[in-house]
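Quick note —
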Amino acid sequence: MELIIKTPSRLHLTLIDLNGSLGRIDGGVGLTLKEPQLVLEMKPGTNGIQIEFKDSQKLTPNLINDYQDKITTSAHRMMEYLNMDGEFSFKVHETYPSHSGLGFGTQLSLAVGKLLSDFAGQEIDVPQIARIVGRGGTSGIGVASFNKGGFIIDGGHHQGEKPEFLPSSASNASPPPILARYDFPEEWKVVLVIPYINKSVSGKKEVNIFQEYCPIDLREVQRLSHLLLMKMMPAVLEKDLDAFGNSVNSIQEMGFKKIENQLQKPIIGEIMQVLRDADAPGVGMSSFGPTIYAVTDSPQDIVSAARDALAEVGGNIIETMAQNHGAIQQ
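Predicted structure written out below.
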């Protein structure tokens, strides 16, 4: 019995409220992407949890280690929850970069959990799988992308459950409620630019940043909330690309996203400006980066500008679009 699942990736546009004056923290805005995608196969094995990669010679040792760790940890957690014995072989057919701002950890962990629960004949909903495998502790965007796809707003966590400002990697909170989920205009294209630089923020350093810079000034949270409710969300529903792009640009200078951008290496801001100068309606950084995204209806000039911007550091450019459905099982 072989099971295969294909997951999307996601952009995390911004966290909403890292002030907490109303008793909730976090909240997130995100977009599900068709590419890059993760394709994972599982079948019964013969020696514990075995993991292989279709194109291992093309993958870095760090990426292989990241995938192996996530698969093994998630498999053990799900098998313990299901009181399930057995040996399983996983094969990774398609990957995308880890720690790049595209949400690989959540997609991979949920994929493992979903495959094992289906193999066991257990119907477990996606938010519950996320709780079991330990995802969604800060943002609910990755969980909702796996589940439903589209453009997503989540409502963050009650401070009774999550009293501290922490990134997902250090939080045990449950996935937050989804406040809104819309189909995103598929005629709008998304150009991803992933420069070859070491990610400057991760792990313990990321935890320290949350502790140092939060709570965010309440006025910043209010400005951002106003922008989301009265400009960005209507722009998606009315398919107003200029208004949506302007919202993305404005977000880069608000709240916690402003801090995320300020902590990046200068090349990130330089590439973003190059893409705006090439008339991309909206340019932002996903999560803590280094992935930069541009939303446009004419990607050719944006791609050309991105190639020029990456001339010194190198990197990947991916032309993609929104995915308005979740993971697909084959």
